[in-house]
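User: Run a structure prediction on this.
Assistant: Running it now.
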Amino acid sequence: MHDGGSSLSYEEHLLDISTLGSIYLPPIISSFVGPDITSGILATRLQDKEQVTLFVDIGTNGEMVLSDHGELTATSTAAGPAFEGMNISYGMRAEKGAIEYFEIDDHGEIYIRTIEDGEAIGICGSGLLDIVGELVVHKVIDKRGRLAAPDNANLKPKLRNRLVKIDEKIAFEVTSGVYLSQKDIRQVQLAKGAIRAGIEFLMAAKELRPEDVDEIQIAGSFGFHLRAKSLINIGLLPKEFEGKIDFVGNTSKSGGLAFLLNQKYREEMERLVTEIDVVELSNGENFDRIFVDCLSFDKKSA
């Protein structure tokens, strides 16, 4: 399904804009890959790439486009709202008091940063991925996503002391009054597993390996606040992507502005969406197996 762009007059919709104004709806690529991604393609000029570039917009839906020397293939996965702080025990939006940065040093000492330096009251998306990634690296969380037992002698004492029981279930004390539960970790696994499975399936469709990808572009207002090492630590991206990751910001917005200001861009993208190959994961052979493999907190390729 490809749907070309549409222009509407303000009079039809009674919007509070100039009487000379018009409304432009960018073309969509498919039912599950919408105009935000069309705008992202325009903003990053994926169609002009002379290398292999993977574009990933991280949000409730993990939409992605692979540019193989300008030939575009797209897909979408249902990641869910965990990365936006939803369905997480102490999850919250990116606002004052949200933990946005989390680091553990070699001695088990923990360093956190909150938005606007407020008192820590919860965890936003970037902080959540930092926390889970660091706990995986320091073996507080194993590859299958299980929290270590409080009496695990292999853990650094400062980390072991933070493993507590809440309602008879093990949780990790991130800071005073803020905890990460086993259920929270499962939510992260499901979200990152969906996105990683989409990436693996997209590469397989083009017979590419992770090491064949030259550049990875992470888009979205949320993606702009992430750290590359956290994405690799939790296995959302394969370790072969290390050193190739670029955060490109809110390309839906920048691409949308380009659409409004340039008629030639509209004509170009209305034509281009008809040439993009769309991979439907629900119809994909072995997708369920790939998804299950991608639930693991492992940096290796699935």
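The radius of gyration is 21 Å.
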